[in-house]
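Tokens help. One example:
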Amino acid sequence: MRGLAIFIVILLTLTVPAQAAELTAPPAPDGALEYMPEESETFAQGLWKILRSALQQLQPDILKAAALCAALLGMTLLVSILEKLPGVSKGPVHLAAVVAAALLMLSNARTMVLLGADTVAQLSEYGKLLFPVLTAGMAAQGGVSGSASLYAATVAFDSVLGTLIGKLLVPLVYIFLALSIGNCAIGEDLLKKLKELIQWLITWSLKNLLYIFTGYMGITKVITGTTDAASLKAAKLTISGMVPVVGGILSEASEAVLVGAAVMKNAAGIYGLWAIASILLAPFLRIGVQYLLLKVTAALCAVFDVKPVSLLVQDFSSAMGFLLGMTGAVSMLLLVSIVCFMKGGV
């Protein structure tokens, strides 16, 4: 009788329904929710929807940037005419032109800098919410030690990069622009050298931190895998060309993202990738429009031979490039980390 009772208890225990832990990614920030695809869509469909939605929001920014560039070109043409008039001194005319160009661009530049800083902060904060979920998922599938080390490294790099950008690099962008205005206005060599030093410092900081991150991932053999060679080459060329300052480094990490996309079985990871893309793409495209149009405007201003103005526009374009590098660096760090978690948990 006792044996029968034990058998019944064991049988009842075995019939209790068992369910694997369901891990849900944290929701995307409010500003990014409008870009998020339906969870029933495939990964590629979701990314295309996010990109299409971001592109549809670009028209006002394109028109505003085009109007700014047209104003800069018109002013440069006027200056080139004025300086050729008899009795007109180039010095005061160029000074007035630089001040006018700076006033035209500063407000818009400040908006873009704040947008870039806010995007970096949102990406970093979302990563801090997402990575514990992915760590738990990877650990639940047997990767306890691997998930702990990957989590520690990712959070450390994300924290250092986010703090570096928010506390140092963003203020340096403002200083870079101020030095550029001063240099173009009065032609002081010291200001030019200080500006170039800050440009080097921003570039050096972003590149070397990403070199350390990708180097660490490579040494620990987290970034590994194979994918279609043509797709990988296309991705590397695209990333390298699209992201100023750090594009070459980010392109080397693109294989991890492509390989991870082929093995994704983690719903939280897929949602996380979509969320990162939703946070990033709209601001990245807005800043990118400013970067490209200012680049073109600087080249056109150089045709009119008003060197101080063309140099100033070029420097403002470089500042937009710094912002693209910052947002691109943080987003790629998060994307590679998410894919590494997903690969470790497959």
